[in-house]
From TrEMBL:
PANTHER family, sorted: PROTEIN YY1 (PTHR35501)
Similarity comment: Belongs to the A9/FIL1 family.
Organism: Brachypodium distachyon (Purple false brome)
Record-annotated Bifunctional inhibitor/plant lipid transfer protein/seed storage helical domain positions: 46-109
Location(s), subcellular: Secreted
GO cellular component: extracellular region
InterPro entries in UniProt: Bifun_inhib/LTP/seed_sf, Bifunc_inhib/LTP/seed_store
Sorted UniProt keywords: Secreted, Signal
Pfam families, sorted: Tryp_alpha_amyl
Secreted in keyword set: yes
SUPFAM superfamilies per the UniProt record, alphabetical: Bifunctional inhibitor/lipid-transfer protein/seed storage 2S albumin (SSF47699)
Entry protein name: Bifunctional inhibitor/plant lipid transfer protein/seed storage helical domain-containing protein
Signal peptide coordinates: 1-29
């Protein structure tokens, strides 16, 4: 019986793939060049909120074994603080639902 790729991958590789997926989702939410963007509203869309998390990108990839995760800088903390709870939870729910939609086993980080 063959194992799926996700079952045979090193946990660090799986975590790095999830981080890459998050970054791709964030990048996809950023406005495209040449597109006119409306003035910010008091409640920006979730995509607009997530697109501001670029300063957090380097903190979303697990460090090498034995290395400490660097503390996020003030730009990251400020950007993260501007993301609403509903937006953050919705993005996490979407990411967590993707393996099942792709026929892959659920990933547990516990």
């Amino acid at each position: 019986m063959a194992m799926s790729t996700a079952q045979t991958m090193h946990p660090r590789a799986v975590a790095a793939l999830w981080a890459l997926l998050v970054l791709l989702l964030l990048g996809g939410a950023a406005p495209m060049r040449g597109v006119v963007v409306a003035q910010p509203s008091p409640n920006p869309s979730c995509g607009a909120q997530l697109s501001q998390l670029g300063p957090c990108a380097r903190y979303s990839v697990p460090p090498m074994p034995g290395q400490a995760l660097p503390a996020p800088g003030p730009e990251c903390c400020s950007a993260l603080g501007s993301v609403s709870r509903d937006c953050a939870c919705g993005a996490i729910d979407i990411i967590n639902s993707l393996p099942a939609k792709c026929g892959l086993p659920r990933i547990s980080c516990q």
